Amino acid sequence: MSKTKEQYLEILSRFPLEGTIGTIEPFGNGHINDTLKVTNNANETLCILQRINHQIFTNVDMLQGNINKVTKHIRKKLEARGEKDIDRKVLTFLPTLDGQLYYFDGESYWRVCLFIPRSRSFEEITPELSFEAGKAFGDFQFMLADLPEGALGETIPNFHNMEFRLQQFREAVQANAANRLNEVQDLVNEIEKRAKSMCIQEELYREGKLTKRTNHCDTKVNNILFDENGKVLCVIDLDTVMPGFVLSDIGDFIRTGANAGAEDDENLDRVFVNMDIFKSYTRGYMETAKAFLSPLEISLLPYGGRLLTYMQTVRFLTDYINGDTYYKIKSPKHNLIRTKAQFKLLQSLEEHAAEMDNFMKEWL
Ligand code: ADP
Ligand code: GN1
Ligand code: MG
Description:
- This protein has 364 residues and is an alpha+beta fold.
- 44% of the residues lie in helices and 12% in strands.
- The chain contains eleven helices and nine strands.
- Strands 1-2-3-5-4 form a five-stranded antiparallel beta sheet, covered by helices on one side.
- Helix 7 (247-257) crosses helix 9.
- The radius of gyration is 20 Å and the shape is globular.
- It starts with a helix and ends in a 5-residue tail after the last helix.
- Magnesium ion binds at residues 28, 30, 222-223, 237.
């Protein structure tokens, strides 16, 4: 539900913004929150205004508390390294005039963060940029690795827990709420065929062989801001930064960045893994992440790409079977189209598994 300009102005008046507001327009391609770009009357971008989807992020205090801790922690690390231009290298959220981390208007929850000038994000990426993105996501995990256990809450409990996602999927299949099961039975079978082999992380965790780390958990290509020279400025979209399994942050980038097609491509011939992107992202990621990864984690990195692609296939199909209750959709079959595209990518990743494992030998 979009608001009138007067309503947005009323929301923005709760935050310490200077100057006169010009335009307020939708921005980005997110599937969950509503993101708006706000300019001043000189047409300079001032800030990003977001309506938090509180059906999904039910604990907004925890959510904004996490983001506050993460951005402060990263800022301190950058200061200690003597970095320059820090305001473009970490997000700055503005507290409201009465000192809160968000504003509740009686209906929705709003937050404002400063716009990072001369920055851009990409939906598709080159090998050069993906090397930089890999370094940035590895460094992001590295900078947060010393946050004390329990510092961050799980904003969405079991967010990347594959056993839990399969349980939700099976409940959806059982209920068949939108009466769509017949149409997707083949895909359901393909998911069940792979189910056990996709829950390795949870098993290794129970056996004490894998620990949890602080992850970004949404390392899509468009969640990184680059400067005009192709250098990474900043990792953004921090809603899902939380403790979890390490494969999330390489896996989701492979799923989005190394896909030659789009996440929702209807032309499945376009959807396959781009090995150059996989290799350059992994090289970049290993440059910063090898400092903390265990040999087991390193050996599992290509599996991470398959896992996150499988998980997204399961999540899109679950939502389609449920009647589209979670992701924003642009057409009635959007979640089914997304499912098919993700499944095609998964098959391509499976075909390249041995080649990817072989590539990891350099670090093992
Ligand atoms: P969503 O949940 O909608 O994906 P994001 O926080 O990822 O929300 O923002 C959507 C897009 O807006 C990003 O891909 C990026 O291009 C742009 N963006 C977000 N925050 C900023 C910022 N602080 N400065 C500049 N651009 C931003
Ligand atoms: C959602 O908000 P956005 O579009 O960056 C989702 C991710 C999915 C992604 C699929 C909180 O991310 O987990 O991987 O869509 N975020 C949440 O594109 O569910
Ligand atoms: Mg985003």
